[in-house]
Structures are given as C-alpha cells and as structure tokens.
C-alpha cells in the first residue's frame, strides 16, 4: 500500500506524474482538499526545476556535447522528462503535455522546413536564453492555465504552428486551407459543427498571417529566428460568412475590411471559436478523458457543468481544471486507475517510484518512441491516439522492456534499500508496493508474483536472493497491465 | 526428406528452405501453407494521396492549366495506355517499378474510388475507409470483421500490423492484432540472467493470462501483454531472413522486408498492414521527377518494387495481393504554396501474382463544369465505391462473404481485378 491517502495518490497520478519519495514527504500530512489547492495553485512556487539539472541526487541527463535543450531536440526531450520527474509544479508539466497533444506540431516537419536547430528552438526554446520568441511548449507552460481564447490566439501566431500548418503560403488569391480547417476541426468546435464553406472562409480570414525572419537569418545561427508578421498586402479583404455566429449580435459575417485592418478578421474568428459552446463541450470531453476516465464515456452532466465553468470564466482553463479535480466525478472511487497511461506518464512515474540513482532520462527516449510517444513528434496534427490505442503487442513490449532497463539500473539500490524489509516474500512484496503503485491485483497475478519470489528456491533473504528478486519484482510490477492504468 | 524437398520446390519456396533443414521449421512451412494460403498486404498512404499526380491524365489540358507549377510534364509520365473513356494516362515517373508490374499485367489501377459526400477530414476519412461505413465510422474495421470470421482459437499472428497503433481497419472486439514494427527489438528483457530471467517471462505470462472479467480495460492491456509474450518465439523466427533483393533503406521498405520475411518463414499471417506517411502535401509538392511528391513516389514505387521482386523470387507472389489506398484524393487546382488541399475521390492500386492488371474505371475530365467533378469542379467525383473493391477482395481473394462483413452488398460495379 502506498504511504499516501489513496485520493492524493489518484490526484498526483492525474494532475502530475505520480509520487516520488520527495512528493510523499510533501503530501503526506495534507488533506485531499489542500492537496488539490497545492497542485493547482502552483504559480506561487518558483519554477526552478531547470536549475537542478545535473545535480547528483536527481535523475541524470546525457549528452555528447554541451547540453543544449534550446536548440537540440534530444536535449529538449531530456529537459522535459527531467521537469516531469522533478518539477514542484507537476500540473504545469501535465497541462503542457495536454496542450502539446491538442496543438500537435511535429519536430520533423519543422526541421524539414527550417533545419534541426531552428526546429528545436521553435518548439522548445525557453524565453530569454536566445534571441527570438519563446518556443511553442513554453507558450503552453506560460499560458496553459489562462484563457483559451488567449492561448488560441498565441498559438495561431506561433511560428511553429504557422510553419506546421502552412500558414506562410496562405495568400490572397490562393488561400491555403490547412490552418483554417484544423482550427475548427481540432482546435475548437470539432467535426459536425462547421461546413466546407466555413473552411474556405477561414482560410481567407487568415490570409496574410505569415512569418518574417530576423536580419541575416540562417537556419544554423542559433540566435536567428522566425516570428509572426501580418502581411497586410496579402490579406483577402472581402467579407467572410460562416455557418455559425461570429459576433454576439448573432451576425455570421466578418465584414469587409481594409488590408491594414484585416488582422482583426482572425481575432474575431478566434474569439468566436473560443467562445463557441461546442468548443466548451469538446474541451470538457477532452478533460474527462485526460483527468477522469477513459473507460466510461463523459457523463453529460459533467460536460454541461465543465462547459459552463469554461464559458462563465471567460474561457479560463485554471478554473476549469480546478473544477474538474474537485468534482464528484473525479473523486468517485471508480475513477481511480480508469485511464490508460500515456508513455510519458508511464515512464516518469516508473522513474519516480522505482528510483533514478545514476539513471539518465536519455535511456527513456528510444523506448518512448517504441511505446508510441516521442515527445515533440506526435504522429499528426490530431495528436496521439489515446486510451486503449496506446496498447499493442509491440508498444506493450516496449513498456515491459523499459521496466527491465530501469529495474536493472536500480538493482543494487533496490537490494540495499529493501534488505531490511525482506524477511519473507510477503514482506518484500509489501515493501515494494509501498513505492510502486499498480492498480489492485486479482489473486492470480498476485500469486504469480509471490511464486516468482521463491521460484529460484525457498526464501532465505540472502543478499543475492534479495538483489535478484527485488529487481525482478520491480520489473514485473512496472510491466504489469495493472501498472499501465493510472 | 527428398519428397518433402521436391514438394517445397514445386511450391516455390526452395530458396529459403535450402540450408535450413530443421524438421520443425519445415513443419511450420507446411502448416502455414495449409493454414494461410492467400494473404493480403494493405499499404496505407497516410495524409491523402494526390491521385492526379500518381496516375496522370497527361493529355487533359485542364490538368496543366490548373496545376501550373506541380503538373508532371507529359513527356515524363510512364504511359499505361488509355482507359475505357479514351483518356490517356501515365504513372508518375518515380513509379518505374510499378510500371513494370503493370506491363506484366499484375497491377490494377482503380480510378476515382471513393464514396458520396467524401469527408475532407484526415481522421474521419481514414475511419470511413477503415470501417467501410461512411455513415458511422466509429465501429470495428472491415479487416477486423474479416478476422472475426476465422476459426477460433484465433492464431495470435493471424494478422500482422507493422505500425505501432492498430489502424481502424483492423479493429475488432474479438480478434486482437499484434503490432510488430521491428522484429529485431521484439524480445523480452530482464534485469537478471538465466533461470531468473526465464521465470520473469513465465510469471509475466501467467499474470497477463488473468481474464479480469470485471475490468475489461485491464483485460485489454492483458491482451496486448499476453499477445507479445506468446508471439515472441515465432517472431524471432521471422527475424532471421535474407531477402533475395536489396530493399531501400527507409521505414516503409524495411516494413515490407519484415512482411516478406514473415511470409517466407511461414508465419501464416493472412493480413499484413503497412503504412507510409507524408502525403498531406499542402505545400511544395514539386514538379515532375523532383521535389517532395516525387520523393514520396520514389519511396512507394521502389519499396513495392523490391517487395514484389522478392516475393516473386520466393514463389510467394501468386498467393499475395497488395492493395494501396489513401483516405482521400486532393484538390484539382494547386494552391498558393505549390501544393494541394484536401479533395475527394482517389486511386486504389491492387497488385500481386494473381491480379488481373490494367486500368479500371475512367479518369475525370478536369475542365470546370464537367460532371465527373464535384464541389464547384474543385474536386474529382467518385465513380467506383471503394467498398466494391473491398467486396471483390473479400469474395474472390480471401474467400469469405463480403455482404456480412461489409454490412451490405457492394458486389455490383466491382472492378474485375481477380
């Protein structure tokens, strides 16, 4: 049994990445109510996690050269995993992951367009390190709990998004539909609530939303950058009519505007989409799957309640998340272990629970790709196929084998740490389950695990027996189907 | 033993059996040939393939006027003759290998495949092709429903998905499909050696065998876990494979090589799923034999060419059919970024040693106002319902009843590809 209140364990799996021994110390004496407040109101705690990269009592990063997470995507992946393991603001990283899936842009397309350095920078650059705007993920980190209208507006003007959905080719006379379609299909109302003519109109709305390069730009110059610009002379100025209201008076037509005023077209459409009731309901359904359950479809009452919070708060996400995490649906015991962990959730929780001594997050990079989730590389603009779709034989095998890699690296530490608590197979199992927290086992797998502990001979508790069996047990627990549920 | 050898030579697998005389292995082959017989390899082009630049109406003036930058010059196409409407057609110049298969009469090009009110959404479109249901694309897949008809217990490798995620077409409530993207990393690792490692594998198998009737979501993950463990040894066999030709070094070709290996080693899978992406060519498609789209065609043609040559050398071609499709075709006129936006009808390709090759259906006329077009003449209107091609494959190739699998009779108008 975990050392934390089951409701807090549940909260930390959903609003974070599980509980490390440090987290257990932080949350042990909190009530579930104050734990939610602590998790959600993270803004008061310093975002200092990056300063701890390289400290010996933290998970390691590996690099051949200088660690350069603002311009090297593999280093950026490591930095993000480090943050997930050690941030004192786990919800911030969790929401960043949510938005990364929601606004799914891929490193590979950006690299094909702008080279590897710029692509990493476009996605992952922290503000203030190099010249140019912050990377897309930093937008999510900074604004992911603010108003969705504001986030949508920032994303629409984010250089990575403009490149990813071909905005720089969207010109007067030759509107390019990619962004115009996806902002309705994926970023707001969803299929069924817009028409094909809406797509063509939206493409015209965003004509002229383009990029400019810094002076003397080259792909290889780490201080060079691309940033949003509104090219007024490429804006298509005729009026645009939609099938849904754009303005609060019910008008569906964005009026004809001069080129210089044409940026307002996009602001009007983004505002209309952010406040569209179907956007509210669609986000509510996504939050149901992300925070509450993937085995029960969204409760209509939840969708209505959550959509109302969203609309009444002026599309602010913070109050929506707080409402979700304090809702009766979240706190119903049946919601525990009712989600399928994403590979990032699985890997980070395993590291936090099994241990990270002398372990580098770099060892998770290739396995995560085999599990189906390379960070910064969602399979397409719709994001990763979630829920049960994470699980196939080869992705499960990748999870299973990551458990082996991790258990192998912690073998000696586990043996030392558990030697005192290994008086019997049952005692070792209980001690391991204090830190590694799968969903409850039925008797068949539980008995199989106990049998494993004595499969090499009767229990003696010798150092070599504990060393072998503790590592094997950790491997089996983390690779169990029960552990994949969060 | 001699008798067995002759039998295998007659069946054309002598090239792989030479030097691998282990009786268990021969038994596997014999079992596979009895069990499997015909197989279907599905190649999905992700993103919406620009069919008009795959099979090019190179005498249609509107093709050139509507695609001033991205049209393939008439002089570069690989001519494949004229269709029933008298429209001259040619393959993209980077599809030389497919041109050869066409000339051998083993490549069928089914033009203007699709369905009414074609979805322009990648995801809905892909699901419609997967479920074979334009009205409700959220259920099981057509190949999943085919697997459901196979005798129980279903062989764990009855189908083999070379991608990480189960595509909609293979989804089924009762027929799990293993995803084996890379046979060489398909193994079971352990922090221990020897007996302890083996005990871990055995334990994992017992744990995953828990039917968990009260927790279907747990049972589902157990299915993936158990499927992995149970297929480890057979997949290890397919790993050891020396192809008869060199495959290009890219993910698509290597997936096809894996498929050929599985076939040659007699794994017995009846359906293989392979996909290759990058077809969402909104920008910079390039023209003719160079540029982004040409690279896609090169990957496709060279990969399929190597695969077909390899399986033909192994005597496996006559029992193999490959179908190639995408979720939709693309807009006829190019956009402002020298690319094309989402369109409607597409092109299906069917190739294999038993396929009746040729041009099926008729090309659209791309002049605005022509009735072969839709969406204010922006897109190509479908002529052949894609489900009729599925029906032909199910009825005449896989030998099952398409009506029950497709939930309707789509035999009418099916191209006579077998």
Structure write-up:
- Chain A is an all-alpha fold and 486 residues long.
- Chain A is 52% helix and 3% strand.
- Chain A has a domain at 97-277.
- Chain A is built from 23 helices and four strands.
- The longest helix of chain A is centred in the first third of the chain and has 18 residues, at 107-124.
- With 418 residues, chain B is an alpha/beta fold.
- Chain B is globular.
- In chain B, the strands form three sheets. In chain B, strands 1, 5, 6, 7, 8, 9, 10 and 13 form an eight-stranded mixed β-sheet that branches. A three-stranded antiparallel β-sheet of chain B has the order 2-4-3. A two-stranded antiparallel ribbon of chain B has the order 11-12.
- Chain B has 14 helices and 13 strands.
- The two termini of chain B are 36 Å apart.
- At the A-B interface, helix 10, helix 19, helix 22 and helix 23 of A face helix 7, helix 9 and helix 10 of B.
Portion in beta strands of chain B: 5-15%
Mean of residue pLDDT of chain B?
89
The CATH architecture of the largest domain in chain B can be given as 3-Layer(aba) Sandwich
Number of distinct helices of chain B:
14
Please report the total strand number of chain A as a whole number: 4
Number of strands of chain B: 13
Specify the CATH class of the largest domain in chain B.
Alpha Beta
Helix % of chain A is: 40-55%
Largest sheet descriptor of chain B: 8 strands, mixed
- Oligomeric state as shown: heterodimer
| Shape designation of chain A | globular
Shape of chain B: globular
Specify the structural class of chain B: alpha/beta
Number of domains of chain B: 2
Q: Spell out the helices and strands of chain A N to C.
A: HHHHHHHHHHHEEEEHHHHHHHHHHHH
Largest sheet strand order of chain A? 1-2
Helix and strand pattern of chain B: HHHEHEHEEHEHHEHHHEHEEEEEEHH
How many helical elements of chain A? 23
Low-confidence stretches of chain A: none
> Biggest sheet of chain A: strands, sense, closure?
2 strands, antiparallel
Low-confidence stretches of chain B: 1-36
């Amino acid at each position: 049994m975990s050392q934390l209140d089951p409701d807090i364990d549940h909260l930390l799996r959903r609003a974070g990445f599980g509980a490390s021994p440090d987290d257990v110390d932080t949350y042990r004496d909190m009530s579930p109510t104050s734990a939610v407040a602590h998790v959600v109101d993270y803004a008061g705690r310093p975002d200092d996690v990056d300063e701890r990269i390289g400290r010996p009592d933290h998970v390691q990063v590996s690099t051949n050269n200088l660690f350069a997470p603002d311009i090297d995507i593999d280093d950026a992946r490591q930095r993000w995993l480090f943050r997930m393991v050690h941030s004192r603001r786990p919800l911030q990283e969790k929401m960043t992951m949510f938005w990364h899936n929601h606004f799914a842009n891929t490193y590979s397309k950006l690299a094909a367009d702008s080279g590897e350095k710029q692509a990493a920078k476009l996605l992952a650059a922290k503000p203030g390190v190099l010249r140019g705007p912050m990377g897309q993920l930093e937008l999510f980190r900074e604004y992911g709990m603010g108003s969705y209208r504001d986030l949508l507006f920032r994303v629409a003007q984010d250089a990575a998004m403009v490149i990813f959905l071909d905005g720089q080719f969207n010109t007067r006379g030759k509107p390019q539909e990619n962004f115009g379609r996806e902002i309705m299909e994926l970023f707001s109302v969803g299929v069924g609530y817009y028409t094909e003519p809406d797509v063509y109109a939206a493409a015209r709305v965003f004509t002229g939303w383009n990029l400019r390069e810094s002076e003397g730009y080259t792909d290889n110059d780490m201080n060079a950058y691309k940033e949003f610009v509104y090219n007024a002379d490429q804006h298509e100025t005729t009026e645009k009519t939609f099938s849904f209201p754009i303005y609060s008076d019910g008008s569906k037509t964005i009026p004809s505007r001069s080129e210089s005023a044409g940026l307002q077209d996009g602001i009007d459409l983004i505002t209309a989409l952010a406040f569209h009731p179907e956007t509210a309901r669609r986000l509510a359904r996504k939050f149901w799957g992300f925070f509450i359950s993937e085995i029960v479809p969204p409760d209509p009452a939840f969708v209505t309640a959550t959509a109302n919070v969203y609309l009444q708060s002026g599309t602010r996400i913070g109050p929506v998340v707080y409402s979700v995490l304090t809702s009766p649906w979240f706190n119903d015991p049946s919601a525990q272990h009712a989600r399928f962990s994403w590979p990032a959730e699985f890997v980070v929780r395993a590291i936090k629970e099994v241990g990270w001594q002398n372990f580098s997050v770099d060892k998770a990079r290739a396995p995560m790709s085999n599990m189906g989730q390379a960070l910064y590389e969602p399979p397409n603009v719709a994001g990763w196929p979630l829920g049960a779709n994470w699980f196939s034989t080869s992705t499960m095998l990748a999870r299973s084998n990551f458990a082996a890699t991790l258990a192998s690296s912690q073998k000696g530490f586990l043996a030392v740490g558990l030697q005192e608590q290994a008086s019997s197979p049952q005692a070792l199992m209980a001690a391991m389950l204090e830190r590694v927290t799968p969903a409850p086992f039925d008797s068949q797998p539980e008995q199989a695990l106990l049998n494993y502990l004595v499969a090499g001979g009767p229990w003696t508790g010798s150092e070599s027996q504990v060393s072998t069996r503790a590592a094997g047990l950790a491997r089996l627990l983390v690779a169990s189907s029960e552990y994949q549920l969060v | 033993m001699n008798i067995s050898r002759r039998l295998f030579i007659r069946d054309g697998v002598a090239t792989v059996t030479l030097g691998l005389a282990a009786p268990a292995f021969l038994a596997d082959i014999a079992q596979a040939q009895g069990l499997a017989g015909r197989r279907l390899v599905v190649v999905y082009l992700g993103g919406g393939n620009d069919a008009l630049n795959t099979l090019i109406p190179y005498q249609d003036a509107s093709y050139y006027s509507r695609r001033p930058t991205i049209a393939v010059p008439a002089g570069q196409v690989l001519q494949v003759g004229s269709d029933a409407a008298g429209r001259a057609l040619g393959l993209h110049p980077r599809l030389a290998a497919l041109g050869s298969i066409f000339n051998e009469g083993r490549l069928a090009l089914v033009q203007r495949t699709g369905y009414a009110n074609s979805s322009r959404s990648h995801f809905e479109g892909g699901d419609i092709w997967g479920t074979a249901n334009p009205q409700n694309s959220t259920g099981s897949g057509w190949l999943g429903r085919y697997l459901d008809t196979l005798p129980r217990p279903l062989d764990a490798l009855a189908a083999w998905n070379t991608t990480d995620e189960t595509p909609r077409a293979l989804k089924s409530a009762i027929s799990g499909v293993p995803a084996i993207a890379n046979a060489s990393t398909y193994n079971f690792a352990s922090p221990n050696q020897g007996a302890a490692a083996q005990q871990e594998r055995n334990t994992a198998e017992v744990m995953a065998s828990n039917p968990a009737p009260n927790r279907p979501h747990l049972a589902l993950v157990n299915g993936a876990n158990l499927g992995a463990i149970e297929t480890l040894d057979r997949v290890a066999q397919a790993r050891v494979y020396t192809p008869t030709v060199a495959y290009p070094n890219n993910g698509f070709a290597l997936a096809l090589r894996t498929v050929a290996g599985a076939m040659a080693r007699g794994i017995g899978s009846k359906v293989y799923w392979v996909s290759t992406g990058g077809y969402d060519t909104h920008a910079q498609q390039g023209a003719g034999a160079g540029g982004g789209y040409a690279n896609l065609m090169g990957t496709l043609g060279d990969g399929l060419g190597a695969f077909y040559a390899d399986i033909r050398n192994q005597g496996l071609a006559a029992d193999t059919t490959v179908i190639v499709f995408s979720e939709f075709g693309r807009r006829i006129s190019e956009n402002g970024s020298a690319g094309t936006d989402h369109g409607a009808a597409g092109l299906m390709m069917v190739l294999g040693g038993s396929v009746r090759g040729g041009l099926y259906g008729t090309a659209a006329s791309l002049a605005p106002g022509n009735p072969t077009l839709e969406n204010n003449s922006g897109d190509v209107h479908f002529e052949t319902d894609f489900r009729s091609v599925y029906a032909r494959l199910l009825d005449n190739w896989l030998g099952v009843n398409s009506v029950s699998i497709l939930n309707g009779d789509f035999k009418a108008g099916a191209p006579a590809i077998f």
